[in-house]
Amino acid sequence: MTLEWHCTDDGVNWDELSALYRAAPLGEKPPEHLQRVFSNSLFKCFVYDNAQLVAAGRALADGADCAYLCDIAVLPSHQGTGLGQQLVQKLVDLSAGHKKIILYAVPGKEPFYRRFGFRRMKTAMAIFEQPQQQVERGYLSED
To answer: Which residues belong to any copy of the N-acetyltransferase domain (predicted)?
Structure first.
């Protein structure tokens, strides 16, 4: 496995990235949406294996106070290889110097992120576009 890392969105095939999120599986993320959110993110990583996009992630960051890691995905064929750990560590390293680095995890995956120093927040709150769906998926509580 020869991995090539890119930390810029120059030359990204947004359709291929959209397919990666469907395969991961992290849901439907249209190419136009991905192009906008990655372009507006201070940090981004794309990982290629023999020219095939196999992993991606980004961090929204303001340069000093807060960085938010999101949209971290690894192609199923590359899951379990340590690539996800490398990707998260790279985004954490790029975000170093911010007073706080946050993310929200797929329910049940919290232990994976704990090894990077992430801890459960007691006061996190969110407004989602489809709140009932997020309750059903385990991201929101009903209270």
So the answer is: 1-143
